[in-house]
Design brief:
Layout: H1 4-10, H2 37-45, H3 59-71, E1 76-80, H4 83-92, E2 100-104, H5 109-119, E3 125-129, H6 135-141, E4 146-152, H7 164-173, E5 178-181, H8 186-189, E6 199-203, E7 217-221, H9 233-236, H10 247-251, H11 255-268, H12 274-284, H13 287-306, E8 311-315, H14 325-331, E9 339-344, H15 347-357, E10 362-363, E11 373-375, H16 387-392, E12 399-403, H17 409-425, H18 440-443
Parallel strand pairs: 2-3, 2-4, 4-5, 5-6, 10-11
Antiparallel strand pairs: 1-7, 6-7, 8-9, 9-12, 11-12
Bound molecules: pyridoxal-5'-phosphate.
Residues 82-84, 108, 110-111, 152, 156, 181, 183-184, 203, 205, 215, 217, 367 line the site of pyridoxal-5'-phosphate.
Length: 448
């Protein structure tokens, strides 16, 4: 199944031989019954294929894993309960205390929180590359303890495009796996594995599920990294559970997924409900149609916003004015995704007026929905960050982020025009937009 739209409806499905149900059934069960003592022993020991308990594996979830692995052209996928769980599981399958993760500066705020508040407390060192387009900076910051290079294919919310092939080269020169969060691009727009990423991570809560109803996440091992030759002693060294053999000895090229599934995902336990696996799989069946339409509309919206005098800048890599435009032309030929940011020159006061004036856009934190959404990052998702860090990652007081849905483009632009009219109608006086405080009304709503 080489064509994407064919694979998205057929790859990995579990046909129901007993009843002929055409859609992969929802196996909503905690555990699986054994026919005999011998079968139970065989399933637990791995000698007999089959399921034991849904925290370690489930047929509906496995069908989703096969489908996403196929769409990313990866070796194997592990599905978990959210995008955050996918990042946590992917990284804990690699790092331990004393190891160092090198990440692009511009990443989703929850990922930054996981790095700085979660993993750092466990003794993992985190460092950010200020200019991810500068390969020399990635090279310069690698330490003997660096075990992961990390970035987002399209960064949330700045929409900077990662030079995946360039960073992969730096990673591989140093024998380090390269982990890429492909949530905003989806495998329809970009397959990071085609350009050298070794592990691809998704929040399936966004475009894969696509309908704003379900949380989920996936970790895909692309099969490109040589685990046998790696510095990961938990994969290459003797393991008690494997009678003194190593994960590489027993599982070969599947060593990372075998360890990450059985030790990290299963024992830390951020499991995906089979019901959510079903819903995400159903969402994937229309992925290419939705993402193409959403990207096309986002480009039209970005062009319209760029022409408004009240707007001082638009962050969308599909526009020639965006610094990542050359990378977008190289990596994102079908479209540049459906998330974009724009800055009102009137600063936070203008952003508040705009935000309160729209009627069709939903005011909420999320992306990838069929509905269009609007967010003021500086007062909500990024409010907890020190101002220098926030503004260093491009989150100014006048920035609004949009996630474009499937509504008619003319209706969306008419709604944005309502926001612009609200800004234009008010005499917003700005002496220094960058230094302007966030209004109390907005600051009060700030969350993580
Ligand atoms: C790029 C990216 N990665 C990961 C996540 C976390 O996903 P989830 O909300 O499913 O935990 C998000 C959420 O917005 C995201 O935008």
């Amino acid at each position: 199944m080489s064509e994407f739209s064919t694979a998205q409806v057929h790859a990995g499905e579990a046909r129901d031989a007993a009843h002929g149900a055409r859609v992969t059934p929802i196996y909503l069960t905690a555990g699986f019954e054994f026919d005999s003592f011998a079968q139970a022993e065989g399933r637990f020991g791995g000698a007999e294929p089959g399921y034991t308990y849904s925290r370690s594996g489930n047929p509906t979830t496995a069908a989703l894993e096969r489908r996403v692995a196929a769409l990313e052209r990866g070796r194997e996928a592990i599905a978990v309960g959210s995008g955050q769980a996918a990042l946590t599981v992917a990284l804990l399958g690699l790092v331990q205390a004393g190891d160092h993760i090198l990440s692009a500066q511009s990443v989703y705020s929850g990922t930054r929180g996981l790095f700085e508040n979660g993993l750092r407390r466990l003794g993992v060192e985190i460092e950010f590359v200020d200019d991810p387009a500068d390969l020399a900076e990635w090279r310069r910051r690698i330490r003997p303890t660096t075990r992961v290079l990390f970035g987002e294919s399209i960064a949330n919310p700045g929409t900077e495009i990662l030079d995946i092939a360039g960073v992969a080269t730096v990673a591989h020169e140093n024998g380090i796996p390269f982990v890429v969060d492909n949530t905003l691009a989806t495998p329809y727009l970009l397959r990071p594995g085609d350009h050298g990423a070794d592990i691809v991570v998704h929040s399936a809560s966004k475009y894969l599920g696509g309908h704003g109803s379900t949380l989920g996440g996936l970790v895909v091992d692309q099969g490109s990294y040589d685990w046998a030759a790696s510095p990961f002693a938990h994969l290459t060294g003797p393991d008690e559970w494997l009678d003194g053999a190593s994960y590489v000895d027993v599982h070969g090229a599947a060593a990372y997924t075998a360890f990450t599934r059985s030790v990290v995902a299963s024992l830390f336990g951020p499991v995906l409900s089979p019901l959510n696996a079903f819903l995400i799989q159903q969402g994937i069946e229309t992925l290419s149609l939705r993402v193409q339409r959403q990207s096309d509309t986002a480009l039209a919206v970005a062009r319209w916003l760029e022409a408004q005098p009240e707007v001082s800048g638009v962050d969308y890599a599909g526009l020639p004015s965006h610094p990542s435009h050359p990378l977008a032309q190289r990596y994102l030929t079908r479209g540049q995704g459906a998330v974009l940011g724009f800055t009102l020159s009137g600063g936070a006061a203008a952003a508040e007026r705009f935000y309160d004036a729209v009627e069709l856009f939903s005011r909420m934190t999320h992306i990838g929905d069929v509905r269009s959404l609007i967010l003021h990052p500086a007062s909500t998702t990024h409010a907890h960050l020190p101002r220098e860090v926030r503004e260093g990652t491009g989150i100014g007081p006048g920035l609004l982020r949009l996630s474009i849905g499937l509504e008619d483009p003319d209706d969306l632009i008419a709604d944005l025009a309502r926001g612009i009219a609200a800004v234009a109608a008010t005499d917003v006086v700005v002496s220094d937009a960058a230094a302007e405080p966030i209004p109390a009304a907005l600051a009060a709503t700030a969350g993580r």
